[in-house]
Amino acid sequence: MATAELTICEPGRKNAEKFMTRHFADLVGDLDGADSPLSSAVFRGGQRHAEKALADLDLSGYTRDRNHAYPRPQRAATGLSPYVRHGMLSLPRLWDEVTGPTDELNRFRVELLWQEYARHWYARLGVHTRQPLRFQRQERRGSLQPIPTSVSIGHGHHDPSPGWNESMGCMEITSGELFDDGWLVGQTRLWMASQWAVREGRDWRAGESLFFTHLLDGSRAANRLGWQMAAGLMSERPYAFSRWQVETRAPGLCASCDLNTDCPIDRWPDRPPTQPVDTPNPLLFSDPDPDRTAGPPEARSKTPSAPSASNGAPDVVWITAESMGNDDPALLAHPELPAVFVFDRPLLAKLQLSAKRLTFMVETLAELATTRPLEVHLGTPAEALDGRRVATTFAPVPGWRRHAAAVEPDVVHPWPWLRRPSDGDISSFAGWYRELWGHALDDRPSEPAARDIPMLQKMG
Ligand SMILES: Cc1cc2nc3c(=O)[nH]c(=O)nc-3n(C[C@H](O)[C@H](O)[C@H](O)COP(=O)(O)OP(=O)(O)OC[C@H]3O[C@@H](n4cnc5c(N)ncnc54)[C@H](O)[C@@H]3O)c2cc1C
Q1: What's phi and psi for 343, nearest 5 deg?
Q2: Mind listing the pLDDT tens digit for each residue in 205-214?
């Protein structure tokens, strides 16, 4: 089907939902024609909402309570991830602008480093992040469920996911949040991933896809890393989910659970049998082409001699799902040019994402359209940008490279890394940290020890 230009709606959630229903009905997995809103109002798309989330950020109690799950008002997680995911809040900006008591800021910056690490990891390994990289699961006779080739997708409360036993109060409440809000605190992501991959022995890749379908911050980088870690494929030690975490991080939840006196996760799970993969991917240990991984260090033109205004200067800025914010480097560098966003029809048809995710993006685009001319297309970037002279920002994901090879942008602006990827070892967070920063950081420092994180003494 040919690429079509769509007239973006006026800002606002209702308008975005109507736009979604009108243009994407056959491309999303959970539009059921019901009158209920497509997404809860917990997270709203758009730079304005990203700025508000940042302005309201208060890191008090962050170290102690960022893993708190329920009741919700006691959570200290920042909830910034959907805006980080789509480039409305860059990691360097968060690193520089967020303030707070030193201990809390230290801890927050470690979390930003995890995001940076996930991006380095995915930028280098790309599609290989689907393979078990360091350990793989061994079948324990009779215990491992067959690996599903696809997973049917939950439709909010109407059609609960098959992946978790929702008679368990902890799985009912968390899968409800996943399907309704498209967001979970990190702690409950671990519960769900561990329940799926460790206790139920399901293929982590199917669970990862289901998360990706629904999470507003769903990224192959952080999501695949999180699932591999929870399943014990990065370090052989899976995340052991049991009633203990629920009682600690969600006091009172077990008391209201139907299975309170017959809890299937009363005891620690058996560690699933794993074995090291025969030949770990060599890209984990070194990168033969770190410039390809990192993208250009400064704005780079297709023709090395700088284009003159009349000949070869870009006439549009192509923005992508990785970088939809006002601080996108290409948008900043070309404030006079219209922006172009392309919803990738073949990809969306394949992924069948939840309507929530696309609504969030439409809301973001509708707001951007109030600040500068914006074209929105449904099709492929190559068709939408055919014959245009394009400026864009490098994105550290395989999809960008694939599209950029067809679009052939005239100017590529650098990705805003916290620290530019090197060619060194990325097989663990600690090793990656040591390689890039030149000194050690305890892998996942225990919460009370956060003040001892050496990073801030060096990085200040
Ligand atoms: C199974 C699983 C799947 C996950 N899937 C995703 C995903 O698709 N997208 C995603 O952005 N994160 C993912 N994470 C990481 C993490 O859970 C979320 O980034 C975090 O919970 C978002 O909440 P927050 O913004 O309140 O984070 P905060 O705790 O306030 O942290 C601040 C920021 O740091 C980053 N961050 C924090 N923890 C991590 C982490 N472990 N890995 C990478 N970045 C981190 C996020 O950008 C976050 O916004 C996943 C984790 C697990 C265990």
Answers
A1: -75, 120
A2: 999 999 999 9
pLDDT digits (tens, 9 = 90+) for 372-386: 999 999 999 999 999
* Ligand 1 interacting residues, C-beta cut-off 6 A: 66, 77-81, 84-85, 111-112, 114-115, 118, 185-186, 189-190, 193, 211, 215, 217-219, 222-223, 226-227, 230
Task: Identify the domain containing residue 169 by its residue range.
Answer: 132-280
Beta partners for 6? 376
Alpha carbons 282 and 399: distance in angstroms, whole number? 22
Give whole-number Cα distances, 378 to 23, 192, 212, in Å: 9, 34, 21
What would you measure as the largest C-alpha separation in the chain, in angstroms? 76
Q: How close is the Cα of 115 to the center of ligand 1, in Å?
A: 7
Residue 51 lies in a domain: no
Residue 137 in domain = yes
Q: Which atom of ligand 1 is nearest to the CA of 192?
A: 1
CB within 8 A of 270, min separation 6: which ones? Answer: none
Q: Residue 267: beta bridge partners?
A: none
Q: What is the CATH number of the domain that holds 177?
A: 1.10.579.10
Tell me if 317 is assigned to some domain.
no
pLDDT in tens, 390-448: 999 999 999 999 999 999 999 999 999 999 999 999 999 988 988 887 888 764 444 43
Domain count across the chain: 1
The answer to whether position 175 is within a domain reads yes
- Which of these, 194, 145, 155, 147, lies nearest to 178 by C-alpha position? 155
